[in-house]
Fold this protein.
Amino acid sequence: MALYNEILDEFRKLDAQLLGISVDGVWCHAAFAEARHLKFPLLADFEPKGAVARQYGVYDAQAGISGRALFVIDARGMVRWSYLSPIGVNPGADGILEALEAMKDAGGKS
Amino acid sequence: MTLRPAVTEHDHVAGRADAPLTLVEYGDYQCPHCAAADPVVHALQSAFGAELRFVFRNFPLTEMHPAAEPAAELAESAALQGKFWEAHDAIFAWSRENGPESLGPEAFESIALELGLDPQKVEEDVRTHSHLERIKSDFQSGVRSGVNGTPTFFINGHRFDGPPTVKDLSAALKGALSARHESKAER
């Protein structure tokens, strides 16, 4: 999150909006965003818990949390790229940026 | 996760250009884990000697660590005065002794004085952001290389995902060294 928070301009340049989502509640998110100075929205997949994560196929029912997953969604709501990272490994930003650039290149040509 | 761009003459490099091992660190001067990793790097340098080349690239997480970028600017200013590694070590040592939150203009001034840097030049470089472009380009290269937190290490161009301890990094470096020997033998 700290890493993504640093490169919001890059996402913006690629016409992308960053959203964070987890099964934590709104007040928890507010405290986290304030502590880390996050400048992008956090969504609460809290009630019914994990409903969104389930739809994306990344809900870990045993741990009761969402997997550490990335999704790049286009303007029509189609998932164009995704990546599921091991829970202990931060997936970084390189894959997201490459996916967004590929989409922009393809869009420019058509 | 591959390092890009590869190490160039513009990087801060300690060690021989023909060393078989290159360890690249992306670090943030106000990050406590990076301060803790500095003695680890020194221990690796002693253990591997001429076989290891160490490179440091800036990766300041500015929203979380407000002093990280000015500290990097101090180190870059010191580089122009021929004292990059001295400043690099001094900033991390300061952070370990006084806490990373104590980094700021006063700390920078005493570090500059301690290292015999021209404090006015340092202050001016930090204030006018003379070296910000270089720091940002380091940061960009890190993002593109898959840096996922600080410190992130790369061994011969590949991201090291283990804990940044002497034991784990040594094992990975030894592995890279024998992989290199094997590929040489095949040729």
User: Anything to note?
Assistant: The longest strand of chain B covers residues 21-27. The first helix of chain B runs from residue 32 to 48. The beta strands of chain B are 12-14, 21-27, 52-58, 152-155, 158-160. Chain B touches chain A through 14 residues (CB under 8 Å).
